[in-house]
Amino acid sequence: MTSRTTWDDVVLMCDDAVTSVPVEDAGDALVDVAGVLAFTGATVAARHVRRPVLDRLLDAAAALPSDLRLALNEGYRPPALQRHYFERYAARLGTERPTDDAATIHRLASRFISPPAVAPHTAGAAVDVVLTTPGGEVLDVGCPLDASPEESGGRCYTAHPDVTGDALLLRRELVGAMSGAGLVNYPTEWWHWSYGDRYWAQATGAPHALFGATGFDPADGG
């Protein structure tokens, strides 16, 4: 009998298939997307990604229909900030689910925030993106960027069945453009895509990740 997979039957960042992937950093520098790709985020650090990631983002942007634009909301994230986000969300889940043990909370938290040890944002290998109009208006693709599984009723999952109509069509455009450019989606977050990190390696069968966590000081300019 063939097992049936569902929209939420996905590999998570905390799974052994991801955490066991070795890293052999290729050494590509972090580069600023300013001037070459629209940016909707708030910090200088978040504008930065590894050069091969930016190349693929530009390919994805070029593949979209003429009435859509790709915009970066966040790329690089400092390790300390990643840890803060993960621990804060895990603590919230622990309060909401007092009967769950620590391992369960860790797994649930990793649906939405990558565990710090494997987080692709800290490697400059992951991006959170949105679709906009040519005038810069962020388009509705079924739930807001950064809406948790609880806040979105699960619609943050890329393949959630409740996402229909125009939102579904937009998601399909995003998936086609980003995957066609060689980026891999984290299926629990429609907005999260990566290249060269452990999750990418697991998804593509690569023998190792190309990028590991890296330091960055915005004062350096990259």
Structure summary:
The radius of gyration is 17 Å and the shape is globular. It is built from seven helices and seven strands; from the N terminus they run H-E-E-E-H-E-H-H-E-H-H-E-E-H. The protein starts with 15 loop residues before the first helix and ends in an 18-residue tail after the last helix.
Secondary structure elements and pairings:
Blueprint: H1 16-19, E1 30-32, E2 38-39, E3 48-50, H2 51-63, E4 69-74, H3 79-96, H4 102-109, E5 126-132, H5 149-152, H6 165-180, E6 184-185, E7 192-194, H7 198-204
Parallel strand pairs: 2-4
Antiparallel strand pairs: 1-3, 4-5, 5-7, 6-7
Helix pairs in contact: 2-6, 3-4
Description:
The structure is a single chain. The protein has a five-stranded mixed sheet, sandwiched between helices. Helix content is 32%, strand content 12%. The chain has 222 residues and is of the alpha+beta class. It starts with 15 loop residues before the first helix and ends in an 18-residue tail after the last helix. The longest helix is centred in the middle third of the chain and has 18 residues, at 79-96. The model has no long low-confidence stretch (mean pLDDT 93). β6 (184-185) and β7 form a beta hairpin. The chain has helices spanning 16-19, 51-63, 79-96, 102-109, 149-152, 165-180, 198-204; strands at 30-32, 38-39, 48-50, 69-74, 126-132, 184-185, 192-194. The chain contains seven helices and seven strands; from the N terminus they run αβββαβααβααββα.
Distance between the termini: 53 Å
How do the strands line up in the largest sheet? Answer: 2-4-5-7-6
| Overall radius of gyration | 17 Å
- Structural class from helices and strands? alpha+beta
| SSE pattern, N- to C-terminal | HEEEHEHHEHHEEH
